[in-house]
Write a structure and sequence with these properties.
This protein is of the alpha/beta class. The chain folds into two domains: 157 residues, HAD superfamily/HAD-like (Rossmann fold, 3-Layer(aba) Sandwich), CATH 3.40.50.1000; 62 residues, Hypothetical Protein Ta0175, Chain: A, domain 2, CATH 3.90.1070. The chain has eight helices and eleven strands. It starts with 5 loop residues before the first strand and ends with a helix.
């Protein structure tokens, strides 16, 4: 067990990204502490999209792992996909059925670059569409998890997948103590990371769905984006 190491899993868009000066400060602090911290970037975007962000933003911390597509895929630092992680979601998952069940008049698929084998994403006109799709999935006996963000974005992933599932997989792999995991996010699709065990950081610019979340270990930063992540890391004693 890595008694002295932390695992930091942070969302990227509007959590780390958004304020370049604050991100540079956070990166500088993390660089000094790096021997004590594993870093995983945890996003709704696919891993390949996250790698483009790493190329465009020099101040993003260089991660040990990328968690992409809402916790349905994980890459190591060299860009190798951890196939053993994703393979567990094949049972009971039927992507074509999910695509068929979202009616065209209410759901518009996201571009192909945002779709992955285990994530189907749509824009929807009404949050009630999610309930209708959930009912249809149940009728089809298809096990899936629905995530609605801002009331207008619908993601469907395998029921056993999620940002929190990926964090737990890495925690076990790295042999990190359960009490030394800290997560940071800003929106509803980050809620899965905020388990009762994890130390949570809700940045100051968080959406209402996350800002009002009730969990035992949540710190609500006064500052936004990367500055809020840094504030939370200091609060939890990671730094």
């Amino acid at each position: 067990m890595e008694d002295d190491k932390w695992l930091l899993a942070s969302d990227v868009d509007d959590t780390l990204l958004g304020d370049e000066a604050a991100l540079a400060e956070l990166n500088e602090v993390l660089a000094r502490e790096r021997p004590r911290i594993y870093i995983a970037l945890n996003s709704s975007r696919p891993c390949e999209s996250l790698r483009l962000s790493l190329q465009r933003h020099d101040s993003l911390p260089v991660p040990d792992f990328l968690i992409g597509a809402l916790g349905t895929e994980i890459q190591d630092a060299e860009g190798n996909m951890l196939e053993g992680y994703s393979r567990q979601f094949k049972s009971g998952w039927d992507r074509e059925t999910v695509e068929r069940l979202v009616p065209g008049e209410w759901g518009r698929p996201h571009p192909p670059e945002w779709q992955t084998p285990f994530k189907v994403s749509f824009d929807i006109d009404d949050p009630e569409v999610a309930g209708w799709v959930r009912s249809r999935l149940s009728d089809e006996r298809l096990s899936a998890k629905l995530i609605v963000t801002h009331g207008l974005k619908l993601d469907v992933i395998p029921s056993g997948a999620g940002k929190g599932t990926a964090i737990e997989f890495l925690r076990d792999r790295l042999m990190i103590d359960r009490d030394r995991v800290v997560v940071a996010g800003d929106s509803a699709n980050d809620i899965d990371m905020f388990t009762d065990d994890n130390h949570g950081i809700v940045v100051g610019n968080a959406d209402p769905e996350l800002a009002t979340l009730v969990r035992p270990r949540i710190y609500r930063s006064k500052r936004s984006q990367a500055a809020g992540v840094l504030e939370g890391l200091r609060y939890w004693g990671v730094l």
